[in-house]
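User: Fold both of these, please.

Assistant: Here is the first one.
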Amino acid sequence: MGFFRRGESLHQRLAREAGLDAERPPHDTTPRWAEVGVHGISRAREWDASTLVEAPDLQGDELSFVALPDGTLLVEGQGDAVPLADALEAHLQPPYRAQAARRDDRYWGVAARRIAVIELPADVKGHELELAVNEGEKTLVADGSREFGSIAELESLARARGLDSYVVRARRLDGQQFEVSVSPL
């Protein structure tokens, strides 16, 4: 054996003897961008539909509106929401809540999310309602004040979803029509 030999280097021999493959690292070093530990949990989708609308004649820079199940538009503020609603309804049927913002002189961006709308009896007072039911105990709050009793329509809405403990929030839209959301406890 010669003094200067060209065999494997010491680190290659040690890796081979340890059973490590010298061609790839002992662990996967590629970035894991899709894993929760790296970038967190993705946010829930905020919009069910969004689109760009050419509407140069609309005034203002922002517009919010609600489309009721019968197609009636309730505009919050000043403006004509019809061209924006027409563009949205190619992707989403009422009822929905929408927000629009001017992008430049000609175009508006508009996005909407579905909502649930129910009609409550005429004797229901208040604009903001919250009914909480937990282990049979009911609490009704109307416009920040605790009220006695309950609202049967809100209870039946939650029971139809198979919930025993829940919170139903209702916000008056127009007349006796309320936007509602149901959350389990």
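And the second sequence with its predicted structure:
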Amino acid sequence: MLYLIRGLPGSGKTTLAESMLKENKVDEHFETDHFMVEDGEYIFHPSKPKAVYVFHPSKLKAAHEECQIRTEAMLKYKDVVVSNTFTQLWEMTPYLDMAERHEHEVTIIRCTGDYGSSHNVPKATIDKMRARFEDIDGEEIC
């Protein structure tokens, strides 16, 4: 099973994904926010104690690519949850394609909470994301 959790910053995506992992509903959790800085180096790891989240637009493409690579590697053997904003369907396409290749079902969950952005994403940025957010047929709302 592949779960794709989508929503605006601060909507509860990471919290939901982490609870799914903790409750053993999935084996792995990935998101581009796992792309962090440790000792001046960019790494992709969700649980490095010295690593900190630093957003750099120039690194976003690499973060998405790394998230996709790790998801595909694990999806061969395990159930995976990916939590990203996924404002538009095309952003999910690589994950939908890999799920089809590995004959996994996909569940799309949209988080709609408003808990405040843990990364201090500016309101203007969130408003732009909200304006381009597409509804997806069959998605679950939480």
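The CA atoms of residues 31 and 83 lie 5 Å apart.
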